[in-house]
Structures are given as structure tokens and as C-alpha cells.
Amino acid sequence: MEVGILGLAGSGKTTLFSLLTGSGGALAATLRRDQAAVGMGRVPDPRLDRLSEMYQPRKITPAIVRYVDVPAVGGDRPGEASLNIPELRTMDALLVVVRAFASDAVPHPLGSVDPARDLARIEEEFQLQDLMVVERRIERLEKDLARRRDPELAAELELLQRCRQTLEDGRPLRSEGFERADRQRLRGFTFLSIKPILAVVNVGEDAIGEDAFADQRWQQWLAGPATGCTSVCATLEREISELEAADAAAFMADLGIVDRALDRVAREAYRLLGLISFFTVGEDECRAWSVPAETPAVEAAGAIHSDISRGFIRAEVVPHTELLAAGSLAACRQQGTLRLEGKTYPVRDGDVVHYRFNV
Ligand SMILES: Nc1nc2c(ncn2[C@@H]2O[C@H](COP(=O)(O)OP(=O)(O)OP(=O)(O)O)[C@@H](O)[C@H]2O)c(=O)[nH]1
Ligand SMILES: [Mg+2]
After folding, report:
1. Atom of ligand 1 nearest to the CA of 233
2. Beta strands 312-319; 351-357: pairing state
3. CA atoms within 13 A on the CB side of 357
């Protein structure tokens, strides 16, 4: 699962990428694919923290999201650079960084700071790109259907006509509640405006604590399906991350900051990907595993090891809250909160799972 970080030049993409992936300034440490940097980011999870406090394991492994810092392409002069569309098409979700901080040192490619405008520009570009793909395909389909009848092609044409209408109305494809089968049909087109999108407003130090979304133009983003909005002050987050834990806590308390904006971004990106976490626990390791919501237990086992999936007998399942209250899996077993589930059980967010398997 990959989240692509994009935005206009100088909006703070690389700063945020480094923070999310803990790669500091040393981007050399991350893989380079074309011109994009790829890195792993931990998903902070208080549930895993509490389970780990209980088990005191030798190793704690959080869920991981892959982030890709997707720089704009072309144009050496500001304003000429445009979004790297081919790279963005392969992403599972998009994280758009829009700039709200003022700085004379960093030129804004559009000449002025206006985060809602910047986001609208980017979204328009996505819709335009999608519309071009849709129109090309419709043309092709109409030619083919003129020659021979094919119910599958006819269904695709109808679906794409619906997409065209949506885009012509100036709405993103993610605003359509497509049925599962239709979503499947649309997958191969790698549309951009259908991807879940997280808008991260990068605010200046002087605007921390203010509502970054007071402007009316944010309404559609705050309400839309598969969209998220959050704000972060990238430079402040960088300062905090450079401090020792105790100093960081004191520094944040001074400023009246309750939680790290960075953690919020990571959690929100995870949610938009449609992922849930289940946990495995023990003295060796407490670990969060990512699976798409509604994954059956036998498939979720495959996230751990294919052998567990292959040799699946039963899953012992207890919500993490019950385990924390009871104090041990044995106590849960005694109290009857530890359930035995079969292959088709849809694993829930926050389940602690112990697999019984035989290979
Ligand atoms: N004052 C201020 N400066 C910031 C903030 N976030 C980023 N910057 C500065 O803005 C400049 C650009 O930040 P980057 O993270 O490199 O932005 P980018 O989007 O990766 O830029 P390109 O890759 O060149 O498009 C750097 O000099 C940052 O230090 C912020 O919140 N406040
Ligand atoms: Mg950059």
C-alpha cells in the first residue's frame, strides 16, 4: 500500500516525507525510483502501546505505510513544473501538501499563498486527466460496439458515460458511490480523482492552533467521501522530532499542543487506505498487522505467513479492550471472551488474534 505525497513546488512535501518516514535530512538513505523517494512510515497506534506495556515484549512492530515523495516534473522555473501524473497513477492514496505558510525565502509558484486555491487546482488537473482517459476509451468502445454487440463492452460504455458526466459536472470520481463490480471495472484505468485523498495544509508557526479550514471553500473537502483534511506545521514538527522525548513533551506542553500533528497525518492516511489493524501479542513480539477491512481470518493469516493461512485450523480472537481488561489471554479464555473463529470470520479493527494452524 503506497501513499503518494504530492503538491506544488515548495509546499513542504519533502519535509513532511522525511518526518513521516523518519529519514531526517538524509534522503540518500531511501530508495530512489525514477525521481521519487520511497520510505516506510510507522503508523502510531496507542492500542499497540498499551498491549506492549502489558506484555513488555522484546520487540514492538507497528503497522507500516509506504510513502513516496513525488516531486513535480519539468520546468526549472517556478510555475512551470507540473504534477507527475504517471507516477501518481500507481498510488493507492494521495497526500496533497498545500502551503499556508508565508516565507519570503520560498517562492510560491502561483505568486501568492492560498491553500484552498492550490488544492482546487490540483483536483481540477486530476479531473481533466481522468476525463481525457474516459473520452479516449469511450471513442474506442463506440467504434467496437458499432461492429459487434458485446454486453460486457456495452456495460463498460455505460459506466464510462456516467464517469464522463461526473467529471464534466466538475466532480471527482470518488464522489460517486460505485458498486463493487463497477469499481473493479474501473481499476485498470488508474483514475486519479477516484483515489482517496488527504489534504495536508502546511501552516506557519504563527498560525498553530488556528482553524486552517475556516474558509468556506474547504466545505466540500471536509464533507466529501474518501477525503480527509488536516493541518500540520512542518517546521515545528521537525523541531519537535529533533528533541529528546522528555524535552519534546515539555516543549509541546509549553505551546499547548496535545498531540503530534504528524501522528494525525499518519493515522489519517492509514484510514483513507481502508486498512485496519489486528494484533498478535506475546513476550517475544507485539505487532500490528494491516489488512483491508472485512478480510476473512484465513486471508488475514497470510499477512503473517503463508503457512498459517495454508494450515489454518482456527483463529482465537479477542478484542484488545477485553484483553487489556482481563490481563492475559488465559484469563480471557476462562472468562469466555476469547472466541474461536473459522476461516470466513471477518477480522475487525483492534482484534487480538492467535492462530492455530498445522503444516
Ligand atoms: N516557514 C516555513 N517554511 C517551511 C515550512 N515547511 C517547509 N518550509 C520550507 O519550504 C521549503 C520547501 O520545503 P520542501 O519540503 O523542500 O518542499 P517540497 O514541496 O518538497 O519542494 P519541491 O520538492 O522543491 O517541490 C524548505 O526551505 C522548507 O524549509 C513551514 O511550515 N514553515
Ligand atoms: Mg521536494
Report:
1. 31
2. antiparallel
3. 18
Closest ligand 1 atom number to CA of residue 203:
31
- What is the rounded distance in angstroms from the CA atom of residue 244 to the CA atom of residue 1? 31
Alpha helix (H) residue ranges in the chain = 13-21, 46-55, 85-89, 115-147, 151-168, 180-187, 219-223, 234-241, 245-255, 261-272, 297-304, 306-310, 320-326, 329-335
The ligand minimizing its distance to the Cα of 95 is 1
Query: Which residues lie with the beta carbon below 6 Å from any ligand 1 atom?
Result: 7, 9-15, 71-72, 101, 103, 106, 202, 204, 233-235
For 319, other C-beta atoms within 10 Å of its C-beta total 16
Domains of the chain with CATH codes: 2-111+195-272 (3.40.50.300), 123-187 (1.10.150.300), 294-357 (3.10.20.30)
Strand partners, 202: 99, 232
Cα(264) to centroid(ligand 2), Å: 21
pLDDT digits (tens, 9 = 90+) for 301-321: 999 999 999 999 999 999 999
Nearest residue by C-alpha to atom 13 in ligand 1: 12
Find the 194 Cα to ligand 2 centroid distance in Å: 25
Q: Tell me how far the alpha carbon of residue 11 lies from the centroid of ligand 1, in angstroms.
A: 5
User: Are residues 133 and 191 in contact, defined by beta-carbon separation less than 8 angstroms?
Assistant: yes
Per-residue pLDDT tens for 310-358? 999 999 999 999 999 999 999 999 999 999 999 999 999 999 999 999 9
